[in-house]
Design brief:
By secondary structure, the chain is mostly helical. It contains 13 helices and no strands.
Length: 256
Amino acid sequence: MRTLKRFFDFYLNASLHIGFAVLALTNITEISLNIPSQTNLQLVVFFGTVVGYNILKYFDAFTQDRKWFARNRAISFTCVLAFIVGFYFFLLTETTVQVAFLAIAVVVFLYPFLRKFGLLKMFLVSFCVAMITVYIPYLQLAQWNIDFFITIIQRFLIVISFLIPFEISDSKTDHPSLQTLPQQFGIRPTKIFGMLLVIPFLLLEFFKTTSSYTVLIVSIITVLFIHFSSVHRSKYYTSFWVESVPIFWWLLLYIR
């Protein structure tokens, strides 16, 4: 049991779970917008997310303690391996996709220097996820339509809602200078803000040429996770359960 727990903690700490979550959001876009599946793109999304998220997650720890990665060899090895594999499949993607990925990568690497602007941090992450999981998969289609624009707005809104439980959980350890949403306005208003964003996410679905009932289920689950968020929740509440919502969403679409 202890070995299983150690493996599970590594799975979360190495950001493999968030990698699958972002990959699931990409698959959701492909299914809902009838975009042909692109294996190379999906692998770049997964491994790129693992590398990028680990850089953001451990940036402060590394800059403050250069021996951190030496003490966390498993995570370090995972990052290096993910970068090598991800870069290989990146080279197999189309030029337009490569340019889009590089542009987003620049924003991601600027994030550690912009995170001191608390509110900007959340919107910046949501913007990057929306671009990776909606805009990039859509690049291969010959024309743009209303469903694309609705989907990218929906993705931006729902990812912010997904981030609310993290903002609340981290508020107990975030430095006051970060001025995150819970620090500036309190936990209850932050929860209300996250729940309100779910409303346009849900309503926009009915303006698509083809709507799906799965967004209603995802909306309810997201609201419940926000409602029960707390600074006292275990790390597994956010790092596993909340991050599992996109995976569950993808499974609903896949089964359908």
